[in-house]
Amino acid sequence: MQTYRTETTVSKDRSVALKDLPFAEGEQVEVIVRRHALKRPQKKRYPLRGQPISYTLPFNSVAEDDWEALK
């Protein structure tokens, strides 16, 4: 089975015309019509990208009390 995909717009008389199809004259084809999915505005994928970074006490140790070896 050969598949051919194209996009078009429904005309004022609510019809669709397909031209220059890559099939031979008289060849039987199946036509499926479906609505294009509405494109939703994309949310920012990385909302913190480009935001300034500040470190509070950058040289202090982190979770020092959690280390069993230091007890």
Layout of strands and helices, then pairs:
Elements: no helix or strand
Mean pLDDT: 85
Distance between the termini: 72 Å
From the alpha carbons, calculate the radius of gyration and give it in angstroms.
Answer: 30 Å
**Global geometry:** elongated
Keyword list:
little secondary structure, elongated, 71 residues
Give structural notes.
The protein is largely without helices or strands. The chain has no helices and no strands. The model has no long low-confidence stretch (mean pLDDT 85).
Write a compact overview of the structure shown.
Helices cover 0% and strands 0% of the residues. The protein has 71 residues and is low in regular secondary structure.
